[in-house]
Fold:
Amino acid sequence: MNRTMSKQAAGLCVACLFALGALACESDEGGTALVTLHNDFDNPALDFQPRWTICESSYLGVEFGHVDIGETSAEQEVTPGLDNVLMVAAWDDPTCAPKNCLPIASRNEEEVVDGQTRTISINLPNHQGPCPPEGVQPIPQRLYDRILELWPEYGFKTYDQKTENTQCLD
Structure:
């Protein structure tokens, strides 16, 4: 009788753990987080402050739009997850003329969780691009191609020609 009760108890424990696991998985799929993007390219704590205006920006499939140097975007509601911030940025041009723009992305995959309010800062160490200067990581093709899909109107070159973009040649 003890052996039968032990098996039933073990079975009940397994069933409870399975149910709790299913509930935990369901809560990971939903929810919301509040995010802002900060154009931190003017960060005085860094040795160099590149003059990048963020012309277009997207995180976790949500558009954040234009963010001037030193400014922060409007707060947007996103579904929690992990992704890079995708951007089009203009060098020394707050008007964002396409000839001054390049596709860039955050160097880090940024994560937000359900209920979180977060500001993601984009600055010199946390970005990558198609023709990076020394010390800046080159952008991976998967991110570059996503930017081209989001903003085709900029007419950026294909990945294998990324260093031929007008801004890379200046």
Observations:
- The longest helix spans residues 2-29.
